[in-house]
Amino acid sequence: MNVLKFKLLALIITGIMLISCSSRSKFTSESLSIGMTKEQVISKFGKPYKSSFTENKEAGEIKESLYYRESLNMGNRSITNILTFKGGKLVSLEQGQESENNSPFIIHP
After folding, report:
1. Rounded to whole angstroms, how far apart are CA atoms 84 and 73?
2. pLDDT tens readout for residues 29-72
């Protein structure tokens, strides 16, 4: 009876450990803050695999986006983190699959 309880407890603990580390992104509200500079982000997360620029001629602004891909621990899933900057400051983070309609001007670092 004690052996059965021990095996059940071991199974539960193993399941909890697998679930807890399965799919947590390193790009979270704890690791990023709106207003961070591009240099701070690159220093913290390394070089992105891709960057792009979008120009809004009417507003006279240029947005720069840095693309980071992460592999999640459960299965073969990956997620793309798109960090967008205006005036050199972080203004948004999008997570998900990269779409085909992203900015037309792309620079690969």
Report:
1. 26
2. 788 899 999 999 999 999 999 999 998 888 888 999 999 988 87
Domains recognised in the chain with CATH numbers: 25-107 (3.30.1450.10)
Q: How many CA atoms lie within 13 A of 109 on its CB side?
A: 12
- CA pair distance 61, 87, nearest whole angstrom: 8
Residues 6 or more apart whose Cβ sits within 8 Å of residue 106: 50, 51, 52
Contact 81, 26 (CB under 8 A): no
Q: Could you give the residue ranges of the DSSP H alpha helices within 21-100?
A: 38-45
